[in-house]
Prior knowledge:
The protein is mostly beta strands and 185 residues long. It contains no helices and 16 strands. The protein has strands at 11-12, 15-17, 27-29, 32-34, 55-57, 68-71, 75-76, 83-91, 98-103, 106-112, 119-125, 133-134, 136-141, 150-159, 163-164, 179-180. The strands form four sheets. Strands 2, 4, 5, 8, 11 and 14 form a six-stranded antiparallel β-sheet that branches. A five-stranded antiparallel β-sheet has the order 3-6-13-9-10, with no helix packed on it.
Amino acid sequence: SHNKEQQYNCTAAPYCENFDLGAGTWTNNGWINDDLGTTSSSTGPSDDITGGGNYMYYETSGAPQNPVTLTSECLDISALAAPELAFYYHMFGATMGTLNVMVNGDTLWSLSGDQGDQWFIAQVDLSAYAGSNITIEFQGNYGTSFTGDMAIDNVCIGEAAIYGCTDPTADNYDPTATVDDGSCI
């Protein structure tokens, strides 16, 4: 076929996006790129996961769009032996809705409700899609009021990682960790 050049439209993993310069190559439909909090109190993050950068968040004040979506470009994960999606989420607020993560239209991860004022990491196994191309969509769904400002940050598609403290001088050093999760003491 003469369509071979289309194969190169997919970005090869490993791939990460931290949203510090905006939505990057993602297609954004309703999320807001921001830093240092949201416009409402008692909801949303006060900073990004690493400190001083940006994140994408769902502003739920007023009459918010529902749902909001953030969709990746086509990603080629064929070079990954144990493909995984890892991302940080922040879901703080009394009227938090639901965050869904879809891969090629399949919902692989979903969480609802107030998770507290902190960032958490989610790790989603992509082995069912090994050897193929994928598109990832983050879908934010409205709760019931303005205290539902969820956020996402540091989205990575790569080899399944082991998160922990990678500093050998720290009290809680984990020699098996492949990615530092900021927990070093």
